[in-house]
UniProtKB/TrEMBL annotation:
NCBIfam families: glut_race. It is an enzyme of class 5 (isomerase). One of its GO terms (biological process) is peptidoglycan biosynthetic process. The gene is murI. The lineage of its organism: Bacteria, Bacillati, Bacillota, Clostridia, Eubacteriales. The active site is at C73, C183. This is Glutamate racemase. Its EC number is 5.1.1.3. It catalyses: L-glutamate = D-glutamate. Pathway: Cell wall biogenesis; peptidoglycan biosynthesis.
Amino acid sequence: MKNDSIGFLDSGFGGITVLSEALRQLPDENYIYYADNEHVPYGTKTKEEVHNFVFQAVDFMVGKGIKALVVACNTATSIAVRDLRSKYSFPIVGMEPAVKPAVENGNGKRVLVFATPLTLKEEKFHNLVQRVDHEHVVDYLAFPELVELAESMIFDRERIGPVIMEKLKEYDLNNYKTFVLGCTHFPIYKNIFKLVLPGHIDVIDGSSGTVRYLKCLMEEKGILNTSGKGGHIEFFDSGVRIINEERLKIFKWLLAEC
């Protein structure tokens, strides 16, 4: 078996936002993208369910031949990344809400983190906030509706903008400097966030830093592909290779948009 691909795992479309960044930074690699469409969304499931789904998906990708793995889902990372690293020896990179850069660049103004309910319940998230939020400026808000909208393939501003503003109706936006998109589905709507929010609010996510870290790990292991020939991507829905042209069009459109 030839281990020459980087595996990407998410419950659905969200990890495409991270894969898009990987294609910019690592254009010569081959990729396997595993959307666990059968079990989406992860953020409203139990920890035990998510843990099992993740290991089923990764075992499948290992069988296909991967040399590194990106758990392109904040919820799955918080639940399973430690155990994955105990089982597998290849580089494994997870997602973490970009709370640290948000706090560091916020000049004391408040930060609002959007994530799934399960991510916000996890000790991993609260440890992160405690570690970096010395001035107690971080607030957080569960936004599972955005995952559902993305998986329903609803991407237009006219539908999404009012949902965002309704979610924020209790917040005084003048108090905030940075919004953190702490679920990989959310950057699909990054441009809509920027359009509907006041101009003083920055909207950030962790995709770029995640891929930079992956690149460093692969360089250290000597497994980085720098052939200059470009690579290819295979897409899977819960272990079934996607060959339906309409579904492939959605993935490719999202890659171009993100």
